[in-house]
Structures are given as structure tokens and as C-alpha cells.
Design brief:
TIM Barrel; globular; alpha/beta; 8-stranded parallel barrel; 36% helix
Length: 222
């Protein structure tokens, strides 16, 4: 049976990172987008990474950042995984060729198939071997962590129609919680799930109990 990977995003403290690790998360996400409520400094991120136990992958999240600025942060921290959460182009992904990149895509049912086709073509045109996952986020003005549930039915319909063939691994995100994640996994069979606000007590402060419940729900989804 294939195991669904779990990323706990919006980590802002060592305590929350360790709670995610103890619960069994595969990865933690740290936000380097200054307007975001969950943004962390490089110094805080360094402390978080130093505290992580083995086999927990740290991911740096950026939004429409300059490539050189991203590289300063990435190389300062030694990050290998980068999540691009804005309107980044294939050229930006190509410029990060030595890093594993996850790209967020907003789920607008009327245009998602066309956007997926564009990324499918870009992978061939730019040889984007480093683009390993598409994070399907809720459409809207917010940048992650909004708690607004995604349009899972539309995603499932496009999946049945073959819209995701030839694109990187599907990562489900957007309004996931302990009480709905199992159903989303059964419906979409994603490679991974990405959660932030759904396991929080307050913006930027995780709940160990909610993290435990979330991980248990993912592991119990069959």
C-alpha cells in the first residue's frame, strides 16, 4: 500500500517543528515571504533546522521572490527543497535547477487543465527535471494558510479526464483538516498532503493535538 507523504507548513518555532516530527510528518515548511503572518527569519529557520531529527525534510517557501534573493536564503540554510507559491514562471524553476522545486497552482476549475498543459509543455521545453510536485492550492487572493477548502470535486473530475497525466506528483493542499483529509486522500490518491492552518491553535502556532490527529487520519486513509 502506497504511503501518502505529509508536510506541515507554516512552522515558526522549534517546538512546532518537533511536534510535527514526533507525530510522523515527512516534511516541514518554513515561509520566507515577509507579508505572511507565518514568515520566519533566516536565524529562526536555522534554529528550527538544527533541531530537526533525521529524515524530516525542511522546505523553504517563497512567493514571487527574486531568484538571487532566494538563492541567498537557500544557500545560507543549505535548503534542498523549495516551494514556489506565487506566479513564478518556468524560467524561475529552471534557474533553481540544482534544487528540488514544488510549484503551487491555484485551482480554478475553468482554467486548471490549461495551466497544467502549460506546465507539461514547459517541463519539456526547459528540461525541468527538478520540478517534482504541483501543490494544488485553493484559488483566491490569499497565499496559503487561509483555511479555505479546495474544490476537491473539480480536481477529481479533471483527474478522471487525464488532466494530470505527464505532470509532477500531485500534492493536495487548501483547507485540509484532521476531519477531511482522509476523504481527500481516498478521492484523489495524492502523493502528499500539505497543511498549515488546519493544525493550528492560532496563525503561526501549531496544535500538537491537531497535528497528531491529522497524521493519524492520513495514515488511516485507505
Amino acid at each position: 500500500m502506497r504511503r501518502t507523504r505529509i508536510k506541515i507548513c507554516g512552522i515558526t518555532s522549534v517546538e512546532d517543528a518537533l511536534a510535527a516530527a514526533r507525530a510522523g510528518a515527512d516534511a516541514i515548511g518554513m515561509v520566507f515571504y515577509k507579508p505572511a503572518r507565518r514568515c520566519v527569519t533566516i536565524e529562526r529557520a536555522r534554529d528550527i533546522m538544527a533541531a530537526l531529527p533525521p529524515f524530516i525534510t525542511p522546505v523553504g517557501l517563497f512567493v514571487d521572490a527574486d531568484v538571487n534573493e532566494m538563492r541567498e536564503t537557500i544557500e545560507s540554510l543549505g535548503l534542498r527543497h523549495v516551494q514556489l507559491h506565487g506566479h513564478e514562471t518556468p524560467e524561475t524553476v529552471a534557474a533553481l535547477h540544482d534544487r528540488i522545486v514544488l510549484k503551487a497552482v491555484r485551482v480554478v476549475p475553468e482554467t486548471l487543465a490549461v495551466e497544467l498543459q502549460a506546465w507539461r509543455a514547459a517541463i519539456l521545453t526547459y528540461s525541468l527535471n527538478n520540478l517534482r510536485g504541483l501543490v494544488l492550492e485553493t484559488a483566491g487572493p490569499g497565499i496559503g494558510g487561509t483555511g479555505i477548502e479546495n474544490d476537491w470535486a473539480a480536481i477529481a473530475r479533471l483527474q478522471r479526464e487525464g488532466a494530470f497525466e505527464g505532470v509532477p506528483a500531485l500534492i493536495a493542499a487548501g483547507g485540509l483538516r484532521p476531519d477531511n483529509v482522509a476523504q481527500v486522500i481516498r478521492q484523489l490518491q495524492p502523493w502528499a498532503v500539505d497543511v498549515s492552518s488546519g493544525v493550528e491553535e492560532a496563525p503561526g502556532r501549531k496544535s500538537p493535538e491537531k497535528i497528531d490527529a491529522f497524521v493519524a487520519a492520513v495514515r488511516g486513509a485507505v
